[in-house]
């Protein structure tokens, strides 16, 4: 396989898996879970928040260990394939979820989201070996742009099925859309597993008891000596806070738009198509900007954009204003995620790339998604206002911005 085909297949995987993110995490399934499975009752919010948090917690716990095992055994692709297959199967089974199947549907979503989020650990770790350091920002931006293009395509594809609304009367069409998401994910993810190869290492079986013990020891060694990479440690902590806020916005955007501003399903589809388009353009534009001015400066710029987004959303009272805010949020989302992945790749030593990305995508990335949704729900419930909950996210963005200003763009710590 040529290098260009390998890069394209890597980008195509982003095109594939973002269909799951937009449909099952951000838009359709959250509304289906509450409006249909939970009959529109308030306990649906609690179950949804718990399901998201539990899936993220499980990924946060296992990602570093599995990342270390993949580094040792050289079987990164096999881990990625297993997580992807898990997500695809669970998503397909969610097409059978019906009113009242709360526990089963929540359990299947936890498995599906674990597969999706866990797979990102191994997927992102390929970035550093597919391009040079000077092009990391550009390729990372291309990846996110392909992802948003995939999200846009799945929304266009499934729009006819969702036109009747995410309500009990249209449940059959919504269920069918979940099955089509699984097919879309599987088909467009396949080229990566054909083009990329596992490294040949002497590690033996990656999932043996001995390999797990070795992985745990390696992870403990990483945790104990993480301060040997001070800029990496600062960046991960900054990422923890600002990514917390970003993931919370993603998880509650459809619910906020529908409950606070009264968006219809048709308007939500148009809204998310607009967000995905602007995120695509933001990823491409800021991918080039990242290579020009560095990922640190780019992240700082995008965090300032997020401040504008949150403040504007709080003051917004009209749907038309929220559409404009959505465009700005899409630009900030695509650019901040692409620049963050580029920053992580620059600060990560090659010999621990998958393990460290396990901390980035797993421990820090997913643990932040535990705190954010819980805080949002508590503030919303306590104050009786989703706008108050949205305002609470400014604390996370502020902490992330402060810590990010203390990170040097290139780590000077010695590699182990």
TrEMBL record:
Domain of life the protein comes from: Bacteria
Organism: Chlorobium phaeobacteroides (strain DSM 266 / SMG 266 / 2430)
Protein name as it appears in the record: Major facilitator superfamily MFS_1
GO cellular component, one term: endomembrane system
Bilayer disposition of the protein: Multi-pass membrane protein
Occurrences of domain Major facilitator superfamily (MFS) profile (ranges): 7-412
Residue ranges of the TM segments: 7-33, 45-67, 79-98, 104-127, 139-162, 174-194, 236-256, 268-289, 298-316, 322-344, 356-376, 388-407
InterPro entries reported for this sequence: Atg22-like (IPR024671), ATG22/LtaA_families (IPR050495), MFS_dom (IPR020846), MFS_trans_sf (IPR036259)
A GO term, aspect molecular function: transmembrane transporter activity
Annotated compartments: Endomembrane system
Main location: membrane
Keywords for the protein's UniProt record, in alphabetical order: Membrane, Transmembrane, Transmembrane helix, Transport
